[in-house]
Amino acid sequence: MTTGDATQEVEAPQEKSAAKRGRSGYLYTFISLAIFFGAWQLAVSANFVSEFFLPGPVPVFKLMFEMVADGSLFVHIAVSLARVAAGFLLAVLVAIPLGMLIGLWRPMFHLVDPWIELVRPIPPIAWIPLVIMWLGLDEESKVAIIMYGAFFPIALNTISGFHAVDRVHIWAALTLGVSRQQIFWHVIMRSALPRVVVGLRLGAGMAFIVLVAAELILADAGLGFLIQDGRYQLKTEQIMVGIIVIGVIGYFINKGLLWLESKWIPYRETIDQNT
Amino acid sequence: MQGKAFMNKKIHITGLNMIYASDRLERSVTALEDINLSIATGEFICLLGPSGCGKTTLLNLIAGFLHPTSGSVLVDGVSVEGPGPERGVVFQEYGIFPWFTVAHNIAFGPRMRGASKKEQAEIVRHFVDLVHLKGFEDHYPGELSGGMKQRVSIARTLANGPDILLMDEPFGALDAMTRETMQEELLQIWQLDKRTCIFVTHSIAEAVYLADRIVILGAHPGRVKDIVEVKLERLRDRSSTEYFDLYRHVDATLRKEMAESREEHEEA
Fold this sequence. Notes:
The structure holds two protein chains of two kinds. Chain A is mainly alpha-helical.
């Protein structure tokens, strides 16, 4: 069984470099940003591309500040985050119990795993027509799409977490005279927890990624709507504001979840090299 | 019915057979064949043999992780039906819990049995001292070296107060220098209260250094080939003539056995 996409596995080194990044690291970040915005501005000023296809940083940020000033940007953010939160929480409620059951009970694994592997490659966007037919055009369909996206990372990591409980830890607990119930709480649950938490983080990230697709379904607010609406009205700046805000919020959500993870699992960095 | 000699034996193994059914090859593998062995209270036994001789299987049967195909393992006259706290196990791959600190690992057994915070702190203090891990109480296992992890594992097992110590190649993953230090420390701890100890190893030097008796096992199927008594005074001098003589003797026995088993294998 594959326990995660390549994209889900690449995060460990990034984490480490973030931890080790000192003052000079921030300097490089600053330089990198300056080069990016400089190049962007230059491309526009030199008329490399027309303003219609790529507006410069100035009109984009001007629009962003206007939307901050009139509060409309915050409404879009709040609406989107509420959808992400609802979809994510529903995914957690289904994926964790199901993942536990599959991870701990072999027959369940053989029953369900083929379906997970079959359905997983279907992108959320492919479900949109059906979901609209089944759930209509309101919030339910958007939340369902987000839930679908968040479900797999959480379920797969939960399965692998419970699957990978080391026999030697259970044996060790048994020779210490520990009861079965205590083994469940202090060995099996503890052993699976780091993986489950990784699943939650990746699931939250995925919920946010799927958001734009979900908001392709008729929406009158939200960051995905901002992008869609910009497209229909040929307002390229608005599209770019949506993209930038999504990127920035996604960045901070990931940072926040990494921070939470390091609080919950203080030994996280060290589990791989140790049984 | 079996007389006094039986009564003062801590562990009594009779007619033990262990056959693994291997469904893939549609044939079974005899891991252990007709093992008979009695171990006295306070004895330090080394199970020595080449890989595939079933020494770990034998230890796992005594620990109760496995059930024999036939025959019995009696501890204090009672048949082993499963793992229990009177038989503490130290695993080669440590088996300590990475999600607990050193202190939590050591106090885990007593804590699960409802020891008070004060008792736990006392236990941790005592055993951390015993295995020379002072100052590392709040470290997680992932931050420790292999030798230190194994010290935690030994401390955790001892803190649970077992009667019998079962050790499955506990120093197998350590470098040679650390290994010798750990052997000395283990003996010093063992000499404090002389718990019955069964220690699996494939190192002749380790067996000669540690054991009261070395049980030499042969492979395919696993059988007791010879039992060598080591009467040298502890702590043993690794460079003494007596030590070397014994080493050579055990080495010769093991080589002879391996050659024989190879021939048998080829005939079969």
